[in-house]
Specification:
Layout: E1 7-12, E2 21-27, E3 30-36, H1 49-52, H2 54-59, E4 68-71, E5 74-77, H3 80-98, E6 103-107, H4 115-128, E7 133-135, H5 142-152, E8 160-161, E9 168-172, H6 176-179, H7 189-198, E10 202-206, H8 212-215, E11 219-221, H9 228-241, E12 254-255, H10 257-263, H11 269-276, H12 280-292, E13 296-300, H13 302-305, H14 310-323, E14 333-334, E15 357-361, E16 368-370, H15 379-384, E17 393-397, H16 401-404, H17 408-415, E18 420-425, E19 437-440, E20 460-463, H18 479-490, H19 499-515, H20 519-525, H21 531-542, H22 558-562, E21 568-572, E22 588-589, H23 593-598, H24 600-605, E23 614-616, H25 632-635, E24 642-645, H26 647-653, E25 660-665, E26 668-676, E27 684-686, H27 701-705, E28 732-733, E29 735-738
Parallel strand pairs: 6-7, 6-17, 9-10, 9-13, 10-11, 12-22, 17-18, 18-19, 23-27, 24-26
Antiparallel strand pairs: 1-2, 2-3, 4-5, 4-19, 8-14, 15-16, 20-21, 23-28, 25-26, 25-29
This protein binds ligand MGD (2 copies), iron/sulfur cluster and molybdenum atom.
Iron/sulfur cluster binds near residues 20, 50 and 51.
Family: Belongs to the prokaryotic molybdopterin-containing oxidoreductase family.
Protein name: Molybdopterin oxidoreductase family protein
Organism: Vineibacter terrae
Amino acid sequence: MMTTTETVAHRVCPVCEACCGLELRIADGKVTSIRGHDGDVFSRGYICPKGVALKDLHEDPDRLRTPLVKRDGRFVAVSWQEAFAEIDRRLPPILEKHGRNSTALVIGNPTVHQVGLMLYFPRLAKALGSRNIYSASTLDQMPKQLSSGLMFGHWLSIPVPDIERCDFLLILGANPVVSNGSLWTVPDFRGKAKALRERGGRIVVVDPRRTETAAMADQHLFIRPGGDVFLLLGLVHTLFDEKLVRLGRLAAHVAGLDDVAVAVAGFAPERVAARCGIDAAAIRDLARRLAATERAAVYGRLGTCTQSYGTLVSWLIDVLNVLTGHLDEPGGAMFPKAPAFAANTTGKPGSGRGIATGRWASRVAGAPEVFGELPITCLAEEIETGGDDQVRALISVAGNPVLSAPNGARLAAALDRLELMVSFDIYLNETTQHADVILPGASPLEEMHYDIAFPQLSYRNQARFSAPVFARPDGQLAEWQSVLRLTAILQGKGADADIGQLDDELVADDVRRMAGPQAEMVLRAVAHLKGPERQIDLALRGGPYGDLFGLKPEGINLAKLKAAPGGIDLGPLAPRLPELLRTPSGKIELAPGMLLLDLQRPAADLARPVPELVIIGRRQVRSNNSWMHNLPILAKGPYRCTALVHPQDARRLGLRAGQPARITSANRAIEVQVEVSEEMMPGVVSLPHGWGHDRPGARLTLAAQRPGANLNALLDDSQRDPLSGNAVLSGVPVQMMPIT
Ligand SMILES: Nc1nc2c(c(=O)[nH]1)N[C@H]1C(S)=C(S)[C@@H](COP(=O)(O)OP(=O)(O)OC[C@H]3O[C@@H](n4cnc5c(=O)[nH]c(N)nc54)[C@H](O)[C@@H]3O)O[C@H]1N2
Ligand SMILES: Nc1nc2c(c(=O)[nH]1)N[C@H]1C(S)=C(S)[C@@H](COP(=O)(O)OP(=O)(O)OC[C@H]3O[C@@H](n4cnc5c(=O)[nH]c(N)nc54)[C@H](O)[C@@H]3O)O[C@H]1N2
Ligand code: SF4
Ligand SMILES: [Mo]
């Protein structure tokens, strides 16, 4: 009798920022089950339904497995060689004729979860040499990156709550029970939050919806969308007004304290209360509690970034952490120390070059460059508008901006005007349907994994590596290989370049630049490795816990990580100031000039009337942005893309539960299904984003059966936070009426 032997594999989940360790069982080359990996030092067995759905993703017949080239308006499957030959025939002539800036790169969210893309698209971007770089960062966290860069000197020096020791957690505009955390890698937030409360701690949530996180908190405060800047100014004002400011150990490391005191003088709680919808007594009470609790942290996320005051709000959150003595203290808001790839662990500790923005500007709107990028909401106009440097060719990497960015219809039309569009993606969807060539990534189960970004944002310090669960099918390239091949084409080396040799050369250049006289020794130490593994080993060994290429044998390296399937725990977060700082002054810049100046906007806005009805977004456990709606295990169950309204609004507007309604904004309109709930703040409607799979031309069989409504089809692509370029996705005025 034949018996099938089951094998077990471990892999860190690449779907969301929680980075859970998964345990997969495999028999006959198929996944038989996916569970949380109890032995994972970091996630300790936690998993959500999207982790389980990796099986469906791996098996999805719609997932692309061969390159596609558009011929006479239709996609045909071609060999990899043909696909690259097509690109080599069409892309270099555009560059030659119209210059580097006639090309654009647009980078989507899954890039950050894919080590091959993370390590190799910077090489692609360099070879491209264009100023037209766009990404999901300007639909998401750019405001926080900017405020952190200004305050602490680097774009990824972002403090996170030390939740295991915290006794008071104030959360604004985040719903980690559902999202599983963001700019804060914290698997099983719910369990950790419960433990916090069980030891007598408190959680306060500020959100226009009584979210799943708010429902488990001690206190929930409804806030008017976009009102956070007023609440936070009121809180900071109270700290000065009631003499509650305590810098503690940081006193010697803070610049600009007096400037902040002056800047907030006009924002007493009594003045801001009406504008944010939270009364003055509650604001003062919150400030007092924050100041009086020894171990406390303030955390804000998406809802605080996707609004026109995103950078101010992101800044004020950390101003609160500093002024109450909670920054960089155990139980407060602390800085992770990642084992590899963190800019705040390299170079001279304690000071640095800081950051700059506006080194160039977008051609049409004049929007400033931020962290090397232009706002993604500028992309359509850069394609549409004629003149020098008009965008004529586009490379998209793991992004679906036609659904995920405001006014996707305009972008879709613009994409069709391109001379060439190349997409790295795993689906033929609303965005990639406009491409001329699609280069399919492998299944995540066929790629190895090491998180570059998330150990820099983790609730504990950690290092984990995942080997591929399955070998790649014959001929399928790993994504780093296809990105490198395109890089070679851009370097003029043609479609058949030796990318192994190119990889060796690029790594050798990096090492010689960074390691100086030790370069040859370092290169010898990693000579047995290639591709991403070599870069990971280099970064780990040279990093803060590394074996220094043999000089510190007890340190970590890739081989040790590979031998530890549950990962290596590097301990609780530890204080890092002033060592972490990379500001020119070597201080925490509490009052950056750009931000003080921007306070004129909320000052002018204080007296402005608030709209009757505004729209906000909503995340759901069984959905992930725009790209997991084709997976059976997630797609089943009740219809989720509903528009939530408060009963008062439903009565006022004649809306009935389960009935269709039209939502309009300017000349844009969508149709939705109404759900009535007291969860909502009156005057606010909530709709999930990432839906709207009813555009013809995509290959998403299951998703098309229940397409949902596209929130972004309603939103205005000219609305941005002027400092960070981040899109305004929240608090947008709308009208809503029943469809009869
Ligand atoms: N209204 C509104 N809009 C929003 C938001 C909101 O809250 N409200 N949230 C915003 C946020 S935070 C984000 S991050 C963006 C996300 O927006 P995008 O960055 O556009 O991400 P997705 O919409 O998830 O699309 C991901 C794409 O990557 C592809 N993909 C998945 N895995 C891989 C892979 O391994 N390799 C390759 N090459 N491709 C892959 C998918 O097929 C899909 O085409 O949406 C933003 N849009
Ligand atoms: N299940 C699931 N998980 C995900 C994702 C997903 O799509 N689905 N996406 C992933 C991505 S890309 C990201 S960036 C993260 C985001 O992670 P989170 O930041 O936790 O995202 P949201 O759940 O959108 O939470 C934003 C909250 O802000 C509230 N809000 C809206 N406007 C305002 C406002 O003006 N002020 C305040 N104070 N609150 C406001 C909303 O009601 C919502 O509860 O989630 C990640 N995890
Ligand atoms: S919370 Fe879910 S989607 Fe996020 S990493 Fe964990 S298993 Fe994956
Ligand atoms: Mo995001």
